[in-house]
Amino acid sequence: MKCIYYPGCSGQATAKNYNISFQEICKKLAIELVELDDWNCCGTTAAISINKTVALSLSARNLALASNLNTSGLPIITPCPSCSLSLMKVNKVIAEGGEYAKNLQEALGAGNMSYDGSVAVRHVLDFLINTVGVEKIASQVVKPLTGLRIAPYYGCLVTRPYSEGDDAQHPENMEKLIRALGGEPVDFPLKTTCCGGTLMITKKDVTQQMTSAILNSIKAAEAEIIATPCGLCQSSLELAQMGKIPLSLPSNALPVVNIAQLIGVAFGFKPGTLMLNRDIFNTAYSTNKKSACC
């Protein structure tokens, strides 16, 4: 199986653990990732709030590059929900036509490029469940997560506004994945609620309120660990549990892992391969000479 891979900016920094872990599990699943050459930032929520044409053009350039490789109808996949949303918006704008579609083509033309909306965009969760399949994932499990109560925290972008491959109101892909790994998915009411991650710098108090509500909901459901398909959500939920003293965690803090790390643990990979030592939770507990999760 082959696909075009767009790691996104966060995959090089704050979500590097997600990027590396995903590439490792793909090797196990016989998935060939062709990283998009000369890719650029998708523009995400920051750019589109200032200039929609510029933001769309950033993502469209990536898709134009992908279309040059896409001789066999390969999809472009990304671990970042914000990146997948930005890329999907381009396809939607081109399909609808109108002023933004015209401006988009003019911007691409200035760089001697064009794009017709033909490249399918998939978030890795959708790709893993609906293309790779839970049966294939389950077949590679050597360390089942038996008895582990896992909270499937989707975040706000994976299921909306474009709920590709899942139900927007009642998503099940995370639950399917957890069961395939031998774990027990724990239901809680805020699993698709926004964590406020993009407000972490400008409105820290708002983010803290939003993440606290999510964490309280998860703890009330008696989960033992949180899994998420979003690197920003992972960081937000980890940081929300940090004390005022750097690298200090309360006794009831819950470890937070991205889905690639969760899969990797069930596949029997070593913690270093999955960069679990780079997670905030594990760094904090290692510093305090306590055992790391997983």
**Can you give the mean pLDDT?**
88
Query: Are there runs of 5+ residues with pLDDT below 50, and where?
Result: 283-293
CATH architecture of the largest domain: 3-Layer(aba) Sandwich
Rg computed from alpha carbons, rounded to a whole number of angstroms: 19 Å
CATH class of the largest domain: Alpha Beta
Shape: globular
Structural class: alpha/beta
The termini sit apart by 29 Å
Largest sheet report: 4 strands, parallel
Total discrete domains: 2
What proportion of the residues form beta strands (DSSP E)?
A: 5-15%
User: Helix-strand pattern, N to C?
Assistant: EHEHHEHHEHHEHEHEHEHH
| DSSP, total strands | 8
- Number of helical stretches of at least 4 residues: 12
Largest sheet: spatial strand order: 2-1-3-4
CATH fold type of the largest domain? Rossmann fold
Could you give a quick summary of the protein structure above?
The protein is an alpha/beta fold and 294 residues long. It has two domains: 2-124, Glutathione S-transferase Yfyf (Class Pi), Chain A, domain 2; 141-287, Rossmann fold (3-Layer(aba) Sandwich), CATH 3.40.50.11810. The chain has helices spanning 16-28, 44-48, 52-69, 81-96, 99-109, 124-132, 134-139, 173-180, 204-220, 231-240, 259-266, 280-287, and strands spanning 2-5, 32-35, 76-78, 121-123, 149-152, 184-185, 225-228, 256-258.
